[in-house]
Amino acid sequence: MNSFVIKGDIVFCPxxxxxxxxxxxxxxxxxxxxxxxxxxxxxxxxxxxVHDYTGKLVMPGMVxxxxxxxQYAYRGLGADxxxxxxxxxxxxxxEAKYSDLSYAEKAYTIFADALRKSASTRAVVFGxxxxxxxxLLMDKLEKSGIVSLVGKVNMDRNSPxxxxxxxxxxxxxxxxxxxKTADRYKNTKPILTPRFVPSCTDxxxxxLGWLSEQNDIPVQSHLSENPGEIAWVRExxxxxRFYGEVxxxxxxxxxxxxxxxxxxxxxxxxxxxxxxxxGVYIAHCPASNMNVSSGIAPIRRxxxxxxxxxxxxDIAGGQSESLFTAMVEAMQLSRLYWRHIDPTKKPxxxxxxxxxxxxxxxxxxxxxxxxxxxxxxDAIVIDDSTLPHPQSLTVAQxxxxxxxxxxDKTGLIAKYVRGTxxx
Length: 423
Ligand code: GUN
Ligand code: FE
Hints:
By secondary structure, the protein is an alpha/beta fold. It has helices at about 85-95, 100-115, 130-145, 165-180, 200-215, 225-235, 245-250, 270-280, 285-290, 300-305, 325-340, 350-360, 395-405, 405-410; strands at about 5-15, 20-30, 35-40, 50-60, 60-70, 120-125, 145-150, 155, 190, 195, 220-225, 260-265, 280-285, 310, 380, 410-415, 420.
């Protein structure tokens, strides 16, 4: 079946501070699962077909831990407001259009095609409140070949009439969504998606927590992104000591199932401690944090304190679905953090950025995002000869440069997901 050997210049990060580079190496894949990477082709694999990418970079597929499918249509527009105004003026207006399935069909065709052609092999995706449009999105993502977790969004307060549910309908439609999609696809699964605390009542959050517990369904949401948002949550939920505690009280903070929270720019010490205790994943979204002026998340601290961190494009807060771009932005923002905010917080290294974009986020899906034994084989192949250079470079240097120079746009020549070649 999906058993073969990949030959090429192999690069991956099994640990956040360790990049492994094997020039002219091999990865043996059996039934879509990695046996091991090798420097020489082992005798036992000599009967397998070889996919020969000699001289090309072979890296794990990128994992986008946070992306809004319906916002893809207006990416690159409207980076001129802070979060709460930006939501009102751009995001909510666009998302209301997805009650119309013919609009959703057009927009989600474009989105799924873009994701298929990107360097991402896995993504954690927000839809809209509309169940049918979100199921249509899942059909398209399944056809694209990538692995995804997709959420029908929940919103039952502080939202425009065109994008607001009752608590009861939000819950019922989510139940129905889970029922219809949990076993429908191979690579596409549902995830619970309360938008954020300002748009979800306590009762709705509690009921979603119950659904998560009953069905072992993962959870995604937003957390401590913007100071105005945090002040509003304090007003709305005076009995909680901090923002994350509101999710926690509802069982939506890693207490029942895998949970990913986007942003965490302004998380307090208590919130950070609870995220660590509960194993909550943080989706760091550097482009979005710049574009809607949210701030700079303390990623050095999160990594050094052992929290789980991956990268998100956060389209359309972020302008690009490229995780290569997100890696560069994460490294650049960490340099500004070090210079402007805290000189003890060392800038992120390239291996750390690559780790977050691959194994860091991949762990949310299980054994994904690395070329280690028993991992699912998700990979991209980059032809960096599109970026000529006169000097000799090591494989590790070529990988670093390919990321900084955006070679996912100019040189992505193959992509494998769970051992299946989709580009
Ligand atoms: N918080 C609640 N909704 C959103 C959204 O759509 N984008 C971002 N960046 N933050 C949010
Ligand atoms: Fe977001």
